[in-house]
Amino acid sequence: MHEKLERKLASEPLNFESFFSEKALQMKASEIRELLKLVETSDVISLAGGLPAPETFPVEIIKKIAQEVLTEHADKALQYGTTKGFTPLRLALAKWMEKRYGIPMSKVEIMIVAGSQQALDLIGRVFINPGDIVVVEAPTYLAALNAFKYYDPEFVSIPMDHDGMRIDILEEKLEELKREGKRVKFVYTVSTFQNPMGVTMSLDRRKRLIELAKEYDFLIVEDNPY
What we know:
By secondary structure, the protein is an alpha/beta fold. It has a domain at 116-222: 3-Layer(aba) Sandwich (Aspartate Aminotransferase, domain 2), CATH 3.40.640.10. It contains 10 helices and 5 strands; from the N terminus they run αααααααβαββαβαβ. The chain has a 5-stranded mixed beta sheet with strand order 3-2-1-4-5, sandwiched between helices. Helix 7 (116-127) packs parallel to helix 8 and helix 9 packs parallel to helix 10 (203-216). The longest helix has 15 residues, at 87-101. The chain starts with a helix and ends with a strand.
């Protein structure tokens, strides 16, 4: 009996898709994942993704740090921690941000995530209701669109030039949406070395974007990997 059941299961694999949620059925393969498949073949030099040069990886430094952590702090490094991440690491990053950007530590809330995609998904989960307006640059980072799209926002695209997002056009669009009784939830920008355009938003436009966020009451989500 058991052998017959095993043979049946082997010949007729379960259709897991019939159990998927409606949200899961709407999902599609990530463009970024498909692009990264190209780099798995050694004979291809791919310009499709923003991949750092392997020769720049600080392998020996990481080996030394990992050895020190596991020798002296294994009880904390391998233990469960808080959702926000290891507190000493968060404090060290806060000190770095204070030194680099002049942001007082008391005003810095830091969460350690497993890469930018998790951060973008969490942002979508926390802030986006179906139908909320999310403003993005045109073009913008594909993986961000995929992360936000799961939560059913309405995207509004703002064109770019050599100084980044056209803030003048953004202001016109904000006023138009306000007249229609619509509110922007947040503006998503890759302000430095924008992906995929490669341009950097000028200081004047950054300042004006902050002013508009205060005036029209929306959040700014800055994706700053570089």
